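// run 5 | inverse folding | seed 20
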């Protein structure tokens, strides 16, 4: 089914965008950010790494599916997806780290969040 060029993808099929940008790029972004978080490095270090992943995603579109290599528009789309998924991966990993490494200080409140444990009450 041919869908033509769109705002999010330039190939003739939405499936290529979903496969390359969302699945492959998202997975690579998640794993990259997870590795940075596991090294206890700050979030800002994810940004250049994830932008490089987005460039690799753009290259795959170009090399395998005749996409435009130097397209600022589609690079920004790829980067937005990779940054969103990578940021989620960083935050999920950091939440797990904080609540595992410092379980007496923090408790998990969701997949991406934690909070300080309440102070124990005196049994006086």
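// decoded
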């Amino acid at each position: 089914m041919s869908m033509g060029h769109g705002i999010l993808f330039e190939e003739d099929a939405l499936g290529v965008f979903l496969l390359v940008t969302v699945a492959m790029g998202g997975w690579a972004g998640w794993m990259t950010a997870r590795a940075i978080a596991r090294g206890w490095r700050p979030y800002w270090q994810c940004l250049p790494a994830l932008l490089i992943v987005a460039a690799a995603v753009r290259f795959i579109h170009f090399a395998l599916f005749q996409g435009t290599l130097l397209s600022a528009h589609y690079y920004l789309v790829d980067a937005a997806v990779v940054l969103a998924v990578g940021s989620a991966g960083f935050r999920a990993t950091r939440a797990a780290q904080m609540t595992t490494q410092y379980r007496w200080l923090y408790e998990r409140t969701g997949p991406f969040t934690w909070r300080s444990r309440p102070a124990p009450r005196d049994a006086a």
